[in-house]
């Protein structure tokens, strides 16, 4: 039995299977990854997008953020076969949750296009899609903005347009300043989000890490937490990761190849 067959067997038997995704699952959709060849951090410096800079130099932060949003999200990106395979696993009751570091919203699009789901509106930025799979956006959602004064969340497109036309930083009706609804460097993940992610990792029987270099904390410690709680841990990534040594299954392959095959094996 090869690794993928044994992983499919573990998913079939699992009470709680959890997927954890990074930029690599969206790369086949055209969204650039952060590290590796031509990564976002080759074109920008992380220091441009820290919470400290947002507070000390909101104009400069927003001018750079408009450029980053253009580079990362300007295309009409569609979910790919990797997103769809995870949505299908959810629809057949084999996936309890998707924890994603990605802020592109493509897991919602996949859930919606495959099975009808709604974008998250809740404070926790987690919601159950149509089939009850919980989608937890650990780093927020770049399609939204949030007022740092009154907390209002709203659609990001019109606000980014106003900023691109010179309203930097863009202002909320309350007079406060909008921030992209993502976790910036130097900013804490909302406590409820990381607590929920950690409890899912602890509860999981199978923890499937997909398309992440697994170097950014606290997210990157989730596979280790799952492993220490007795889960079968699998890593699907084009390159090696620091968690390969603790994984039961390592597939150095493309998500659009592995995940549909995994779904077919689980359903066979
Ligand atoms: N199939 C499988 N893996 C892929 C594919 C693919 N088609 N394309 C790229 N990858 C892998 C790369 O080899 C790389 O190891 O996806 C990984 C993406 O790693 P990163 O670019 O570091 O992205 P990620 O792990 O999501 O970064 C975590 O860092 O900058 C912060 O907030 C940002 O959420 C991000 C966090």
Automatic annotation (TrEMBL):
Query: In its UniProt entry, what is this protein called?
Result: NAD-dependent protein deacetylase of SIR2 family
PROSITE patterns according to UniProt = SIRTUIN
Q: Where are the transmembrane segments?
A: none
Give the species this sequence originates from. Answer: Natrarchaeobaculum sulfurireducens
- Which PANTHER family does this one have? NAD-DEPENDENT PROTEIN DEACYLASE SIRTUIN-5, MITOCHONDRIAL-RELATED (PTHR11085:SF10)
Q: Which residues bind Zn(2+)?
A: 147, 150, 172, 174
Record-linked Pfam families: SIR2
Q: Where are the active-site residues found?
A: 139 (proton acceptor)
């Amino acid at each position: 039995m090869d690794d993928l067959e044994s992983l499919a067997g573990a998913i079939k038997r699992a009470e709680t299977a959890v997927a954890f995704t990074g930029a690599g699952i969206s790369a086949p959709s055209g969204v650039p990854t952060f590290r590796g060849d031509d990564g976002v951090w080759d074109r920008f410096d992380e220091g441009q997008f820290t919470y400290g800079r947002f507070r000390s130099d909101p104009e400069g932060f927003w001018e750079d953020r408009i450029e980053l949003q253009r580079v990362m999200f300007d295309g009409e990106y569609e979910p790919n076969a990797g997103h769809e395979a995870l949505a299908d696993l959810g629809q057949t009751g084999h996936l309890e949750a998707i924890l994603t570091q990605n802020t592109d919203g493509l897991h919602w699009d996949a859930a919606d296009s495959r099975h009808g789901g709604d974008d998250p509106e809740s404070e926790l930025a987690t919601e159950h899609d149509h089939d009850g799979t919980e989608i937890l956006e650990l780093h927020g959602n770049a399609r939204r903005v949030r007022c740092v004064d009154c907390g209002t969340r709203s659609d990001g497109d019109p606000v980014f347009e106003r900023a691109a036309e010179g309203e930097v930083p863009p202002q909320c009706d309350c007079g406060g300043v909008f921030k992209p609804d993502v976790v910036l460097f130097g900013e804490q993940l909302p406590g409820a989000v990381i607590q929920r992610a950690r409890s899912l990792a602890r509860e999981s029987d199978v923890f499937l890490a997909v398309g992440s270099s697994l170097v950014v904390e606290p997210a990157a410690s989730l596979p280790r937490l799952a492993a220490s709680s007795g889960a079968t841990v699998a890593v699907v990534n084009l390159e090696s990761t620091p968690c390969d040594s603790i994984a039961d299954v390592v597939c150095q392959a493309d998500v659009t190849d592995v995940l549909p095959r995994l779904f077919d094996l689980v359903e066979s």
